Amino acid sequence: MTSKANSIKLFSISTPPMRAFHLTWMAFFVCFFAWFACAPLMPVIKGEFHLSVAQIANINIAAVAITIIVRLIVGPLCDHFGPRKTYTGLLLLGAIPVIGVAFAQSYESFLLFRLGIGAVGASFVITQYHTSVMFAPKVVGTANAASAGWGNAGGGAAQAAMPLLMGAMVMAGVSETMGWRAALIVPGVLMIIMAGVYYRYTQDCPEGNYSDMRAAGIPIEGGKKGGWDSFKLAAVNHRVWMLFITYGACFGIEIFIHNIAATYYVDHFGFSIKSAGLAAGTFGLLALFARALGGWISDKAALRGDLNSRVTLLFVMMIGEGAGLLWFANADGATYAVIAMLTFGLFTHMACGATYALVPFVDKRALGGVAGIIGAGGNVGAVAAGFLMKGLGNTQQTLSVLGVVVAISALCALAARFSSEAMESAAMPSKIAA
């Protein structure tokens, strides 16, 4: 028997699962805020460094490219070292480029720091891992989706807050050039503070920390060993790669929109930087409830049906995302564009939540590997979207093509259906000595 939580008591921090739940979404919020802090300031940065369209595309690609590699690594690291140490390390190391970007003096140095900041996006995998080992199957979908969704909202908060923070710096008497630089130091400092809090107040699983449990001979659920073994187990499972594609088509689109929305509203609809940041921020702030809603509906669907009910739900949500994205791409006026963005954003966030409501059931022996590979799929999708925009040179055309691609990729969700034997295996508790 494990002491995984069978319910989510939002206003409690008295148990290890609930402390992990709250601190993991807070850490993820800080990381996402830092990851996308540059995006709403790009119109100003673009002018200072005299960036071309191709250079901006390169910066957007760099912001998500390195995350692919780091997500593949941190999943197995969680199996081996535990999510507590892995998250603390990522927060501390990630703060270096986050603070460093404020000191960039050229396009090349800015690009290098932006590449480094991308590693912070791997925080998502640790967040999903930590809640997956803390909560029982009946609520794990909701726990995963809520923690990820509230953390994702950090991206929306950055879109809205960073222009205001820069404005406050300018009002205090500094130049605009110094204003955006000073503003970008703030998220780096927050990451350092969060690292200390996370290490002090969380543990790896309900029974304790992995290192202590292994030393005491206490078995760890699924016999997690981590490292290459975890990655190999996950890599031979076809459902992992089907969900890799679907996550690329929902979370990848989410990241892409975070990076281009503010600039799109400025260039295409004539918004001011503050207005564009607020409009783009609403997309990210949908994560406060929409991703959790996707996970909650998935849990309810599974209780009424079976594991494949989660799969069918994901398919429906992705069809809705594709249709909404096509609407956004062809919206004539600013008002319709914002409404369309919120509509397809709702489906996008819900599809993300529904995807990670499936992750804990794919292969319990390699939870870190599964979470890492599927999480990396989101960034592969974002990078692919970035290259597509660079190739087409037109944001509207890019959005239209992506809408069609998302709708087609929904078929991969159906290809991830579970056989009767696989559903029985997913439902069985697995305790093997590590």
UniProtKB/TrEMBL annotation:
It comes from the Bacteria. It is found in: Membrane. One of its GO terms (biological process) is nitrate assimilation. It is a multi-pass membrane protein. Keywords: Membrane, Nitrate assimilation, Transmembrane, Transmembrane helix. InterPro entries: MFS, MFS_dom, MFS_trans_sf, NO3_transporter. Residues 20-421 form the Major facilitator superfamily (MFS) profile domain. Its main location: membrane. The keyword Ligase does not apply. One of its GO terms (molecular function) is nitrate transmembrane transporter activity. The chain crosses the membrane at residues 20-42, 54-74, 86-104, 110-129, 150-172, 178-199, 240-265, 271-290, 311-329, 335-359, 366-387, 399-418. Pfam families: MFS_1 (PF07690). GO terms for cellular component: membrane. Belongs to the major facilitator superfamily. Nitrate/nitrite porter (TC 2.A.1.8) family. This is MFS transporter. It comes from Rugamonas brunnea.
